[in-house]
Fold:
Amino acid sequence: MGDYHLHLHRHGRAHELDPPPGVYPAGHIEAYVEAAAARGVHELGFTEHLYRCEDAAGVLGRFWEREPVAWLADQTERFLAEDRTLNLERYVETIVDAQERGLPVLLGLEVDFFPETIDAVVEFLAPYPWDFLIGSVHWVGGWAIDHEDAVAAFDERGVDRAYEQFFALEAQLAASGAVDALAHVDVVKKHGHRPPRERTDLYDEVVTAAAGSGVAVEVSSGGLRNPAAEVYPAPALLSRFYDAGVPITLASDGHSPHQAAWGRDEVVAAARAAGYTERSQFRKRRRTQVPIESRPEGPSDLEAGGDGGAGRPAATVDDIGPEGDGEHGEHYQQRDDR
Ligand SMILES: [Zn+2]
Ligand SMILES: [Zn+2]
Structure:
């Protein structure tokens, strides 16, 4: 089993128990590895946010300035000022060092998709030894579509139009060939906004684009920690991906050690319900297919806590742990995922 979407820092102001932004203390990555192993997951793909890296600010540009709705542009500018606290070089060094120490970790990145800058971003990222890249639509123009401080925009423009704009960008991302997997491909539902009728018509374009480019799609428990209360992608969308032959990765989008491999059983159940028996594994951006429950082969396999992959049941929303979503309420919970 693998978790191909993990972050080493939470968003915004650090929790008192967290390392400060950009600091990777001894044992931090090991804590993720141990938490995942306890859930039967033995391959961890870290995917820090490109937009959070100060040294990537130039290549993404001041994209919010293209946003015609002033308050949305302002919200994004404020959010970036608070959240852009990491360094790409330092992050890459940290993961490569963990690999050299024999930990079962992969070097990935969560790449923000903007049609205007994706080619420059691909070039910017080319020198690094990525195992895989995931691609995300977090912004429609300058609107941070998954941010709790910008949800009023759903009322202003209408849920259907928001879905149309979001999925148009997802389809462009899927067709671009820039990344290896699509992250939270229907994150537009995160805060519980649903069109009166499920927009399966919008699914077809992104599925066709993904099948054409060969990109995988992640099945993520992240939606279960939010008002959407559903795995990403929705069942009707994941079934379409399966029918079109689009491969999957498995993901938690965890932002702290206790979230590593969180929701494993729900993710596996969703994948199996759509028909999947295999997941994708990446090394140096080359994909192979392995059974969903398999463990990685080779020297990076971690035996500590080894339980043959059976694992214990994933935590439920209620027992996510003392640092978890429950005790800090909705606000904290929603800031925890992106
Ligand atoms: Zn994301
Ligand atoms: Zn993420």
Q: What stands out?
A: The pocket of zinc ion (ligand 2) is lined by residues 5, 7, 110, 253, 338 (CB under 6 Å).
